[in-house]
Amino acid sequence: RFTLYEERATFLSPTEIQVGTQTLTAKVFIISTGSSPSRVPIPGIEDAGYITSDEALDMRELPESMLVLGGGPVAVELAQFFCRIGTHVTLIQRSDHLMSKGDEDLARPVEARFREEGMTVYTNAPLDRFTTDGTLKTAHFSHEGKGKTATAKVILQALGRHPNIEGLNLEAAKIVTTNGLITVNDGMQTSQANIFAVGDVNGMHEIVHIAIEQGEIAAWNATHITEPPRKYDDRLKTQVVFTDPQIAGVGVSEKECWDQRIPHLIASHPFDDHGKSMTLGETLGHVKLLCEPRTGVIIGGHIVGPEASELIHELIAIMYYEGTVRDILRMPHYHPTLAEILTYPAEELVEQLP
Question: What angle is formed at CA 183 by the lines to CA 177 and CA 187, rounded to 5 degrees?
């Protein structure tokens, strides 16, 4: 149904691309070139050598020790994986807590579990430089006002990704970029109305299901130009981090509410005060709901704890239909289940509504 060209492509104009030795012309283009691990300008790191998530997934021998650089989803998931299969892991994060783009209270239970399992975790620890001694690699960094070092045989560099736009010659297509990301509107159009960009390359959210949704939006808009455009709804942005305990969230975070001055009410409930999680022995973490203060419409929901990746989907469904905290209370929740924990912060919020 389509012709596949396995060659590098570069724009010649907004309607032409060079593919190998051929020039192709089209009315519409969709850019979906993804991203790659970023290279970071820390003295000595290139000489020391490191692996990224790409190489980590191909490893066939267990490393004795590992320095994990970063505190985002990739860093924390792989750090716990290697720790659990027997690698001595030291994680170094520049920000005050892991998953620094999110709420601090969601990260702390994960940090606690990491330390319980024997991982060494440094937060608020900016990296200074790297040195090597034979097969050992040493990170030099600051922590609590003092110089520190950590040494391991392998460095996992998980300090972010950058979009794959090099070689596309976006200037020829007159496509605007911002900080290396292709700028798009909510219909996935770039500064050229006939060119769309989806997934990691636009930097909106580096998450698979969102990239798929953006691709579907771009494909519809590109092929239905006479019909109303479809648009990406950021209201339901969802993220899951597959650590233990898991972290899951939908909608705005508490941090975003404060930073953007979004009016909200907030309530939470811990898993260590919930029957089903207590019987499972999974008492680390909590659930948190945010709602509009007049109507009770849910604007955010966040879970750190057992089966968070599954529990979050109830909140996604309720928010899809613009439901309220009152709706959560009206919905039957079987006892004893993990899901019924959502009714406790909902009840607290209902009591605060006018």
Answer: 160
Task: Name which of 286, 287, 310 is nearest 300 in CA terms.
Answer: 287
Q: What angle do CA 99, 84, 243 make, to 5 degrees?
A: 30
With b meaning 16 or more CB within 10 Å and e meaning fewer, what string describes 305-332? bbbbeebbebbeebbeeebbbbebeeee
- Binned at pLDDT 50, 70 and 90, residue 155 comes out as very high
Q: How confident is the model at residue 206 (pLDDT cuts 50, 70, 90)?
A: confident
**45-159 matches 9-36+162-232 in CATH topology:** yes
Give the other-Cβ count within 10 Å of 226's Cβ. Answer: 4
d(CA 352, CA 340): 20
Strands (E), 111-255: 120-122, 127-133, 136-143, 146-152, 154-157, 161-163, 177-178, 181-182, 195-197, 238-241, 246-251
Neighbours of 257 (CB within 10 A): 19
Residue ranges covered by each domain of the chain = 9-36+162-232, 45-159, 237-350
Full-prediction pTM beyond 0.90?
yes
Alpha carbon distance 284, 244 (integer Å)? 9
CATH of domain 45-159: 3.50.50.60
Question: Catalytic site residues?
Answer: 335
In this structure, are residues 102 and 96 in contact, taking their beta carbons and an 8 Å threshold? no
Q: In CATH, which superfamily holds the domain spanning 9-36+162-232?
A: FAD/NAD(P)-binding domain (3.50.50.60)
In degrees, rounded to 5, the angle at the alpha carbon of residue 241 between the alpha carbons of residues 120 and 316 is 155
DSSP state of 120: E
Domain 237-350 classification at class level = alpha beta
